[in-house]
Amino acid sequence: MARKPRLAAGRARALGLPTRGTTNPNRLRRVDRWMTGTLSSFLLDAADPLVVDLGYGATPITTVEMAARLRAVRPDVRVLGLEIDQERVDAGKAVADPPWLDFRRGGFELAGARPVLLRAFNVLRQYTEEQSFEAWDTMLSRMAPGGLVIEGTCDEIGRRCTWVTLNSDGPQTFTLACKPSGIEVPSDLAERLPKALIHKNVPGERVHALLAELDACWATAAPFAPFGPRARWVESARLLTERGWPVVDDRRRWRLGEISLEWAAVAP
Description:
The protein is an alpha/beta fold. The chain has helices spanning 29-38, 40-45, 61-71, 86-93, 129-141, 195-198, 206-220, 229-242, 251-254; strands at residues 50-54, 78-83, 101-105, 117-121, 148-154, 160-167, 170-178, 258-262.
């Protein structure tokens, strides 16, 4: 029987299991760029701009980077990094600047915080699908009213990423993001699908159909290759939209190597 997430020992009663802790500077730049662009109005409208970075890893560098990037949109943003491992929390405390940037021991229960925005990257891959859905529910139950959870996965240097955006109604959008020059075909991103989707990349499932269609669009867009991989990605996204897929962003985001769709397009 699959083991369920446990309450780690200690005063914080942090819910979850420690991650491997792998992290690198600038690893999460693509999701940060998406948040500061797509969610800029959301951040500006927030009554209490508290943002949580859950499971930041062995060093706090990606939390520090996120705080700096969000501050460019909302100067009074407060960022709280949460980790189950106390040594990682201590490493964060060494660079903290409370109340604008702080670190605390916590897990899916969010250590009592009620953020308006939560980033949880490379956190759920060690769990089962069932446990990942339970984690979604737990995190969402701790959010401020109207809050958003961004949960996803990326490679070690941040060139291939995918993520899901959730609110109290459940998953809303699914995003693929990459450096177009670093892929052979868009389905190369399949290895970085979030836990909720990675085992569904098989014939008959929506996410498999999406990746197959995007690969077909990439092949059709081959005449754009002389203009560079970015131009080919933009044309692939345009073709995907033209073929009836529920794409929710536009050329401005496509040029950054992104494409976002309604969650219904990939829902298991």
